[in-house]
Design a protein that fits this description.
By secondary structure, this protein is an alpha/beta fold. The protein contains twelve helices and seven strands. The strands form two sheets. A five-stranded parallel β-sheet has the order 4-5-6-3-7, with helices on both faces. A two-stranded antiparallel sheet has the order 1-2. The model has no long low-confidence stretch (mean pLDDT 92). Bound molecules: adenosine-5'-triphosphate (ATP), magnesium ion (MG) and zinc ion.
Length: 319
């Protein structure tokens, strides 16, 4: 589920919304009292009846309790009515002094009972897009605007299958979704379908991270060789723990013993934890074997479902 940082960011947004609503309500109350001094007394009486109601509600049941309760309720009602009349005489709405939450369902708390409110889910998704690494592509590369018209003959059949597999991978995403390996030449839609998957999976509330192999290694390098002691390694930690990691352009990274061991550790850690990974590459199976040692290539070729992308460069066709 959504990362700790994203939760924190969303909780912060909600707390600010709540504080803003309460502050505005308080300002309105002060304004109301300044315009209608009688309201001060009414509000004092209302808060007293509320306290008395509470006191009676916890008494044992008896006819006397019933009588007191209905008397107080009547008093409360007439105070409310007097208050509403005052508001109306000033041309103010009934709920003028009540907090106006952006989400009336949860009062900007993010939860309804113990259930996460849909406003919070939405905020988490937005935060997820922002921190996913493909925020700028979201909405531009979707399943719906992925066209099979760019592919001919057998290529099109293959791409139709890829589209249907990736769509169902995204729609049915769970902690048991497994791994995909997108293989094919440049411009054939690997990144496009990765973005489409990421969008759907983020909307479901999962933590998704998209990064090129080169950048992932850069982050590990930075943490290993340049970070000061005590600095926490959040970024690489999220590579290892997010629900879905999309590693783009495997094979374009500058290869060193360090880069190979990083990739091995990352892929292996995620496999051991049962976390889904999608890898895109221009390399063929033979080239993967030639470029990486057995520990990596056997994992890629054994634990990832290969999807072959074929056809003529769509990037060129679109120009
Ligand atoms: N089937 C498609 N329908 C619509 N647009 C597409 C399709 N395939 C690719 N595109 C568009 O063409 C461009 C290149 O596609 P994409 O980036 O997905 O290629 P790629 O396979 O990731 O290439 P590379 O290996 O160079 O990274 C993008 O703008 C993408 O939106
Ligand atoms: Mg790409
Ligand atoms: Zn809400």
């Amino acid at each position: 589920m959504a990362s700790k940082e994203n939760y924190r960011a969303v909780k912060d947004i909600l707390a600010k919304r709540r504080a803003r609503a309460l502050e505005k309500a308080e300002q309105n109350r002060v304004f109301f009292h300044s315009q209608a001094p009688e309201a001060v007394e009414i509000d004092r009486a209302l808060s007293q009846t509320a306290m008395q109601l509470f006191g009676i509600a916890i008494m044992a049941n008896s006819p006397e309790k019933e009588a007191k309760l209905s008397a107080l309720k009547a008093q409360n009602l007439s105070l409310q009515e007097a208050r509403e009349e005052l508001l109306a005489s000033l041309g103010l709405p009934k709920n003028f002094t009540e907090p106006q939450y952006e989400c009336p369902l949860c009062g900007d708390s993010g939860y309804i009972d113990l259930q996460m409110c849909r406003c919070m889910k939405h905020l988490l998704a937005l935060e997820g897009f922002k921190t996913s690494g493909i925020g700028h592509l979201i909405g531009t590369q979707t399943f719906d605007n992925f066209s099979l018209d760019y592919y001919k003959g057998a290529d099109r059949e293959q791409m139709k299958r890829n589209l249907s597999i990736t769509r169902s991978f995204a729609e049915n995403f769970s902690s048991k979704s497994g791994n995909l390996l997108f293989m094919g030449a440049t411009g054939l839609g690997k990144t496009h379908l990765s973005t489409a998957i990421a969008t759907v999976v983020i909307e479901k509330g999962y933590d998704v991270l998209y990064e090129s192999a080169q950048n992932i290694i850069g982050v590990y390098e930075h943490e290993r060789f340049h970070s000061t002691r005590g600095e926490d390694n959040h970024e690489s930690e999220r590579y290892e723990t997010c629900d879905l990691l999309i590693i783009d352009d495997l094979g374009t990274e500058f290869q060193t013993a360090f880069s190979v061991s990083c990739l091995y550790n990352l892929i292996n850690t995620r496999l051991n934890r049962g976390k889904s990974t999608i890898i895109s590459t221009n390399l063929t199976a033979g080239e993967i074997r030639a470029r990486y040692d057995d520990r990596i290539s056997s994992r890629l070729l054994g634990h990832f479902m290969p999807l072959l992308f074929r056809g003529e460069d769509v990037r060129c066709q679109k120009l």
